Amino acid sequence: MREIIDSHTHVDMNEAFGWFDPPESILELMDEAGIAKAVIMTYADAPATGKHPLEYIAGAVKQYPDRLIGFARMNPFYGERSSRLLEEALTDLRFKGLKIHQESITAVPYNPAVLELVRVAARHRAPVLFHTGDEAMSLPLQVARCARAAPEATIIMAHCGGYFHADEAIAVAEEYDNLMIDTSAIPYPDKLAEAVRRLGPQRVLFGSDGPGCNPALELRKLELAGLSERDMDLLLWENMASLLDRVKHD
Amino acid sequence: MTIDIHTHIGQSIYGYGQRPHELIARMDRLAIERAVVCPVQPIDYHLEPANDEVAAAVNEHPDRLLGFCRVDPRRGERAVEELRRAVSQLGLSGLFLHPWEEGYSVNDEKVVRVVGVAGELGVPVMIAAGYPWYSHPLQVADLARRFPRQKFLMTHGGQLNISGLAQQDAMTALSECPNILIEVSGVYRQDFIEGVVQGLGGERVLFGSNSPQMHQEFELERIHSVKVTAQARERILAYNARELLDIPD
């Protein structure tokens, strides 16, 4: 059986959204779908009030070290504290990447404070996952400006631009080599096939946005996209594995 | 039995399209017995011939297809006349509105006028919903609350929003307006569908694919992947559509 890494999932107890997803929620769905490992992140941005998002993720990873990989979802507007927390996450807490949800922090991807965190991540060779979901601050053209300002960073556009901006996401990824896309939640298998064709299979990552989105269904979407076996190996495992390998903790 | 409550035929000015025989061939492959077909916005903008095309397809495949007409409420009385013609003369079974593609707010007074006539004719109203500015779920609810006995079907669960930012509004619209049903093509998060079924009942959700703009096979698999009871799944796949449109067993 093919080994699979899911590059985009969530673990959090989020009252604001009413999304309560302990690690076991995603693990159960991973088992159903035959997924070995998943990148997990919270719905809240550290440093948030209440239960600390980074500690929560670090705890889940510690509990399931063979299955879960942590990305730090951050708010950049706490000055030095934000950068310091990210440094700590990418070293002591053994996180492997940064997640920015622009609607959640109310900032465009090329905001100087966001860029600062992106550069911290890049110094650790850690990938940065941006939400790209059609809203005012989640547009591919905005992510492209971040990619241009921080060419040393590897930047992933989640959801391949969303419902309305898939063409734009593919176009900006064609322009900037440090951009990648993930396949999560977008309902267009044919558009993902087009992305693989235009960008090359090395720049597309399988992600489910589980447990809210069903990982088995998200995998089925790639089958319906009609990708080759070699492409599937890259999307489902090799691309993400090599990104994660570059982040060294010891 | 499986019924796809939302498909389109014709060549859309937005670049997507399919012919009736292509739709039927795919339905055969996927074991979808029946589908509701709606017009696209045609390349020449004229919805009346597109309604004729839908009626012709239904007449050619009466055991497989049902048709909804499409009108542009901005045309005022012309839209009302076309709705009457499509239902009374062409024999179509419902009204389809696409506020985003045509460019109007679904709670506009001109839409109220058209929906009132759909009520007189006794046909359901399907709204391409979840599009920002024009058919947000609370805008659909604002329309639906004025016609408590009229059935409305919101496409995409009313929340075509991949950030999940419209989910609460969609749930609010569904909770406040029992006359709103949803089809769930392209919907963000399976657990939204599960939440509607658990919280409001399996009778509120229908399978629709929005083919060919969306992927009919993938959307059917979405329904099979949702964690609901077998009974709820049967309702979603066929029973609710049969009830809405009086389709025999």
Strand content of chain B: 15-25%
State the helix count of chain A: 10
Q: Summarize model confidence as the mean pLDDT of chain A.
A: 95
The major pleated sheet of chain A works out as:
8 strands, parallel
Residue runs with pLDDT of under 50 for 5 or more positions of chain A? none
The proportion of residues in beta strands of chain A is 15-25%
* Topology order of chain A in helix (H) and strand (E) letters: EEEHEHEHEHHEHEHEHEHH
Largest sheet of chain B: 9 strands, mixed
Distance between the termini of chain B: 8 Å
Radius of gyration of chain A: 16 Å
Assembly state: heterodimer
Shape of chain A: globular
Write the layout of secondary structure elements.
The complex is a heterodimer of chains A (250) and B (249).
Chain A: E1 5-10, E2 12-14, E3 19-21, H1 23-33, E4 37-41, H2 53-63, E5 68-73, H3 80-90, E6 97-100, H4 102-105, H5 112-123, E7 128-130, H6 140-149, E8 155-157, H7 166-175, E9 179-182, H8 189-199, E10 204-205, H9 215-224, H10 229-245
Parallel strand pairs in A: 1-4, 4-5, 5-6, 6-7, 7-8, 8-9, 9-10
Antiparallel strand pairs in A: 2-3
Helix pairs in contact in A: 1-9, 3-5, 7-8, 8-9
Chain B: E1 3-11, E2 17-18, H1 20-30, E3 34-39, H2 47-60, E4 65-70, H3 77-89, E5 94-97, H4 99-102, H5 109-121, E6 125-127, H6 137-144, E7 152-154, H7 167-176, E8 180-183, H8 190-200, E9 205-206, H9 216-225, H10 230-245
Parallel strand pairs in B: 1-3, 3-4, 4-5, 5-6, 6-7, 7-8, 8-9
Antiparallel strand pairs in B: 1-2
Helix pairs in contact in B: 3-5, 6-7
